[in-house]
Design goal:
By secondary structure, the protein is of the alpha/beta class. The protein has a seven-stranded parallel sheet, with helices on both faces. Helix 7 links the parallel strand 8 and strand 9. The longest helix has 20 residues. The radius of gyration is 21 Å and the shape is globular.
């Protein structure tokens, strides 16, 4: 297949979870002998150097009045490339996309409940525009790939073919860490990002107060103004080269802790996949799409705003159990990108076959 990967609201100017995911997907498709090109409207034409193996065409979107013109230009560029299919990282309606999607079979990747998330991150005007135009985009695509079963259920009303494929990771790119030094005290690590309340930094600080003195490294967040336990160490946004030593020093990693703010209970965070790829067990307050309920490497906490105090003993026991252990690679082999992308490509080929015979 010749696949046009269309990014929306995806920042590929820097190394981040989304840009790494897009790169991993595209490389897997290339390895499977498919031709891939990435297209997007972006705030800047800068492109993270890690995207280099993937052909990229980005157009600076400009101001509000100029954005419609640039979106139409982007649609023309995709059409001129003559792809067999479009893989659309769904975000919002832009002029020209509905017509483009009706001409070329398009699969939309749904990563979140936009109706719940956008009011947390966008202005009222943008949210209103999105609500008015959302159905036009979703009705124009040929099928959905959702990252959770919960999201698939919320899109069932559109009557489109769908597939649930949780986020994966290239396990070969991550060395399995040696067991923690039993002579050193346990240490926790948390990766988050500013402007994402569902990551749950406030619940991480609650956890720090419950287990006083246990160091917690915070990656991706800047130090807030409010007084915090002295055991919390903020490192700000870091590249993998700079944050991986912090993961190496950790006993247990902390995943998403406040998914309830988006009215969701199920997730498959990219950072949790990275933790597990390195052998780090995870504490999280959500149901993970790909992790069995009886997995000993994932401690699932309640997904609400209540204190974690009743879970203090369970958390301490979990940390102590993993104090000298790492998660074996065999337990997470199903998360590998080779498994995930084979499933994704098979679904796209099915959609393309249906589209051609319609």
């Amino acid at each position: 297949m010749k696949i046009a990967y269309l990014g929306q609201m995806a920042d590929i100017s820097t190394e981040n979870g989304i840009s790494k995911k897009i790169r991993t997907q595209c490389l897997a498709w290339q390895t499977a002998a498919h031709e891939v090109r990435y297209f997007s409207l972006t705030p800047t034409t800068a492109v993270w150097q890690g995207m280099q193996p993937v052909p990229v065409e980005v157009i600076r979107r400009g101001g509000v009045m100029h954005r419609a013109v640039q979106s139409l230009r982007l649609a023309r560029q995709i059409r001129a490339w003559r792809p067999d299919a479009i893989y659309f990282r769904y975000a919002y309606h832009s002029p020209g996309l509905v017509r483009l999607f009706r001409e070329i079979p398009t699969v939309a990747e749904i990563n979140s409940d936009d109706l719940a998330e956008y009011p947390l991150t966008l202005s009222r005007a943008k949210v209103a525009y999105h609500r008015l135009t959302r159905n036009r985009i979703l009705r124009a695509v040929a099928g959905f790939i959702t990252v959770t079963n919960e999201l698939a259920g919320r899109l069932a009303g559109f009557g489109k073919p769908g597939e649930v494929i949780g986020n994966g990771i290239a396990l070969a790119d991550f060395p399995l860490l040696p067991p923690p030094d039993s002579e050193r005290p346990p240490r926790l690590v948390f990766m988050g990002s500013a402007g994402s309340p569902w990551h749950g930094l406030d619940r991480v600080t609650d956890l720090a107060r419950l287990i006083p003195g246990m160091p917690i490294d915070i990656i991706g967040e800047s130090t807030p103004a409010a007084p915090l336990p002295t055991a919390i160490h903020f490192h700000g946004p870091l590249t993998r080269e700079r944050y991986e030593p912090l993961l190496r020093a950790a006993t247990v990693a902390i995943g998403t802790m406040a998914l309830y703010t988006k009215h969701m209970d199920e997730a498959c965070p990219l950072k949790a996949r990275e933790y597990l790829a390195l052998g780090l067990p995870v504490i999280g307050a959500y149901q993970d799409t790909d992790i069995p309920t009886d997995a000993d490497y994932f401690l699932r906490l309640p997904n609400n705003s209540e204190s974690l105090a009743p879970w203090r003993d369970r958390i301490s026991t979990f940390i102590e159990y993993w104090r000298t252990r790492r998660v074996p690679r065999s337990a997470i082999a199903h998360l590998d990108v080779s498994v995930k992308e084979a499933q994704r490509l098979a679904f796209m080929e099915k959609i393309l076959a249906v589209f051609r015979h319609a």
